[in-house]
Amino acid sequence: MSKIRILVVDDHPVVREGIASMLERQSDMEVIGEADNGAVAVEKCLVNSPDIVLMDLRMPTMDGVEAMRRISEKQPDVRFIVLTTFDNDDYIFKGIEAGARAYLLKDAPREELFRAVRAVHRGESLINPSVASKVLNRFAVLSKQAQPPELLSEREMEVLRLMATGAANKTIAAQLCISESTVKTHVQSIFQKLDVNDRTEAVTHALQRGIITL
After folding, report:
1. CA 12 and chain centroid, separation
2. What is the residue extent of each domain of the chain?
3. What is the CATH number assigned to the segment(s) 4-124?
4. Contact at 8 Å (CB) between 20 and 32?
5. What is this structure's pTM?
6. What is the DSSP letter of 212?
7. Of 74, 38, 77, nearest to 58 (Cα)?
């Protein structure tokens, strides 16, 4: 089985090298490069075509948000995991717009990092609850400006709320006492009704429109 090819991007050498070292010890992961700023990340993506980019947000020369936008334009299949210290909430929301599939604190347990890499590689999303709450706070004012549309069924709302906590389909199925295939059907229905393409976008869209709260 081919390994998950990862590019690690962070301007702090100790953090970057530590993350790379942890990932390399996983049998299903391979660090194909490191970059200390967004501009270098763009160049290395073009050369090495990683599956996953672990992206810091605040860096010199070019920040992570701009780097994600440029990489996505040329390599839309590359998936991003943001590593953030939450210094600036604006970067978090811009990261969502730039296409990040997961958000982690830099001091998150290594098991959480590994889980995020594998989940994003499978096409799933993972939102740290702390990030989700920040998104909610930012969009609280916007959500009050319009009444949320009655788009989703009660069960779909339950699924969406659990999605917002970062729960995978298997976990949602267990909590709602339904099959995993039924969860997948509800998720696809949610995507269609909200006119979104993935879980991160669905949760962000729902929070922005006041459809759900955390």
Report:
1. 21
2. 4-124, 142-208
3. 3.40.50.2300
4. no
5. 0.65
6. -
7. 38
State both tokens at 53.
């980019």
- What torsion, rounded to 10 degrees, do the Cα atoms 130, 139, 82, 197 define? 120
**How would you class 60 by CB atoms within 10 Å of its CB: exposed for 0-12, middle for 13-18, buried for 19 or more?**
exposed
Residue type, 148: P
Same fold across 4-124 and 142-208:
no
Would you state the CATH architecture of domain 142-208? Answer: Orthogonal Bundle (1.10)
Structural tokens at position 55 = 């992206």
pLDDT tens sequence for the chain (214 residues): 799 999 999 999 999 999 999 999 999 999 999 999 999 999 999 999 999 999 998 899 999 999 999 999 999 999 999 987 765 667 777 888 888 998 888 888 899 999 999 999 998 888 777 676 766 666 665 555 454 455 789 999 999 999 999 999 999 999 999 999 999 999 999 999 888 899 999 998 888 888 887 6
What 26-30 contacts at long range (C-beta under 8 Å, 24+ apart), as own/partner pairs, is 26/114, 27/3, 28/1, 28/3, 28/4, 28/118, 29/3, 29/4, 29/114, 29/117, 30/3, 30/4, 30/5, 30/6
Rounded Cα gap, residues 177 and 148, in angstroms: 27
199 neighbors 124 (Cβ within 8 angstroms): yes
Write down the residue that tokens 């089985």 correspond to.
1
CA-based radius of gyration for the chain: 17
